[in-house]
Amino acid sequence: MAKTVSKTAARREGKKSSPCGHALLAEVYRGGVVESRHFGSVAVVDRNGKLLYATGNPHITTFFRSASKPFQVLALIEEGGVGRYGFTPEEIAIMAGSHSGQPEHIEIVDQILEKVGISEQDLQCGVQTPLYFSSQSRIPEAGQQFDQRHHNCSGKHSGMIALAKILGGDIAEYLDPEGKTQRRIMKGVAEACQFPVSRMTLSTDGCSAPNPAVPLYNMAWGFARLASAFQFKGHFGRAMETVLEAMTKHPFMVSGEKRLDYVLAQTFSGKVVAKAGAEAVECFGLTDRGWGVAVKIDDGSSRGMAPVVLSILEQLGYKFNKKELFDYLFVPVKNFRQTLVGKIEAAVKLEKAK
Of the given ranges (14-28, 141-155, 231-245, 255-269), which has the lowest mean pLDDT? Predict the structure, then answer.
């Protein structure tokens, strides 16, 4: 288990832990002074479920959010969806991802809609400004319009409707937590993460789909199993391999330009398969080791996630070009005149689990 620090010790050590068991993960500097701190927890687990490293509380329960997408698509694959609809690896990748709404992404979503025989109006994810604009620090042009295809979850929702049609359900009710579609999806998530549906707490995600709360440890275990999918036999193993292959060969469909998941895929050449979630969740599998890592920043802010993840990878022995990733290792803090006034850097310290 990870080392825990008492409240008294925390005060002596400069508040390096929080009352709920989280540890210091990142610090925000303005000039040379720490202005803010981000606390959270990390779990590193192998394919057999052994907790290897941790910081904070690796067993804390939190919502999976979009980091669950690689597992939410398993049911569609297990039920024969790839063969029935002729889905390509790119299309599976976008179902398992949170795309940026770039033209290339919309083209793939359109292909899925056509194959399933549905339209944009059948989706129930809502409309959002594409993530492309925030990741590129851009503002949409006046009058520019978007629809549900531009939502980062439109690939996932298209796949869910495809599964609903296979199962014979009413596609208008594909988000019903008690319906056959979502119950089948949650079985896939439960199997991947080795955490029973009966112990999951479901709530509504930002895209209106049901989303489970599970321990951080089980999130990490799920990604360890994804990273070593070839180890598992039967329908589950083949489905996991399909997702892993899609995500590693088409990481742009999982994310988008300048976003952390895509940067990790490019930097580590398929050794890291990553999926972010809202409210500062990040999960990734290490395919060369069969390990999974799950990170939760307690306050829900993702601004320090990139340096935290890169620091974790460095502590686990992964090498990368620090000059090329400087702005991810030390996230610049700028004012409204775009003057550099500070930085965000990692403070995370992994410890071997006992």
Answer: 14-28
Burial of 265 (0-12, 13-18, 19+ CB in 10 A): buried
pLDDT reported for residue 141:
73
Tokens standing for residue 256: 């988008």
Q: What is the DSSP letter of 335?
A: -
DSSP assignment, residue 17? B
Measured in whole angstroms, how far is the alpha carbon of residue 162 from the centre of its chain?
A: 22
| pLDDT for residue 15 | 54
Distance CA 173, CA 182 (A): 10
The mean per-residue pLDDT over the stretch 70-94 comes to 98
Query: For residues 265 and 273, is the Cβ–Cβ distance under 8 A?
Result: yes
Helices (H) and strands (E) in the chain, counts: 15, 12
DSSP string for 121-188: GG--S-----HHHHHTT--PPTT----GGGSTTHHHHHHHHHHHHHHT--GGGTT-TTSHHHHHHHHH
**CA distance linking residue 92 with residue 97, whole number of Å:** 9
Q: Helix, strand, coil shares of the chain as percentages rounded to 5? A: 40, 20, 35
Q: Is 261 left (phi over 0), alpha (psi -120 to 50) or beta?
A: alpha
- DSSP per position, 99-113: ----HHHHHHHHHHH
For the whole model, what pTM was predicted? 0.92
Ranges assigned E (strand) in 255-339: 272-277, 281-286, 291-297, 330-334
Cα torsion 190, 191, 196, 202 to 10°: value is: 10
- The answer to whether residue 39 scores a pLDDT higher than 80 is yes
344: left (phi over 0), alpha (psi -120 to 50) or beta: beta
Closest alpha carbon to 224 in 281, 275, 293, 295:
293
Q: What is the pLDDT of residues 232-271, one digit of tens each?
A: 888 889 999 999 999 999 999 999 999 999 999 999 999 9
